[in-house]
Amino acid sequence: MHKLMVLYPAPTDPDHFRDYYVRKHLPLVARMPGLLEWRYSFEVTATQEPSPYFAVFEAEFADAAALAAARESPAGRETAADVANYATGGVVVIDYPMQNGTT
């Protein structure tokens, strides 16, 4: 499993961010090929206050190659280009392979 995580610092207009993100951006995300699951939250807290992030997004792909193919697809390029329409506070994008833990 390979995960994509997007961290969003506070935007200049939080209401616009929320509205645009849900109505316009997430439907673009949902079109990305190879996307297995995705989730997001506008309720980001941190152990030290205030949280450095306003929102978080996570997506799962089978592996790094599937994520790379999704990013390079027309839907992936359109999704990436759309970020400037709402993320006025910037964006941090990271990806990594997941390892299973044991107890």
Description:
The two termini are 19 Å apart. The protein is 33% helix and 24% strand. It has a single domain (10-97), classed as Alpha-Beta Plaits (2-Layer Sandwich). It is globular, with a radius of gyration of 14 Å. It contains three helices and four strands. The mean pLDDT is 96. α2 (64-72) packs across α3. It is of the alpha+beta class.
- How are the strands of the biggest sheet laid out side by side? 2-3-1-4
Extract low-pLDDT stretches: none
CATH class: Alpha Beta
**How is the biggest beta sheet arranged?**
4 strands, antiparallel
Q: Enter the CATH topology name.
A: Alpha-Beta Plaits
Radius of gyration: 14 Å
CATH architectural type: 2-Layer Sandwich
Strand coverage percent: 15-25%
What best-fitting shape do the alpha-carbon axes yield?
Answer: globular
Number of strands: 4
Distance between the termini: 19 Å
Number of domains as seen in the coordinates:
1
What is the residue-averaged pLDDT?
96
One letter per element, helices H and strands E, the order comes to EHEEHHE
Helix content: 25-40%
- How many separate helices? 3
> Class by helix and strand content?
alpha+beta
Protein name: EthD family reductase
InterPro entries: Dimeric_a/b-barrel, EthD_dom
Domain EthD: 11-88
Pfam family, one: EthD
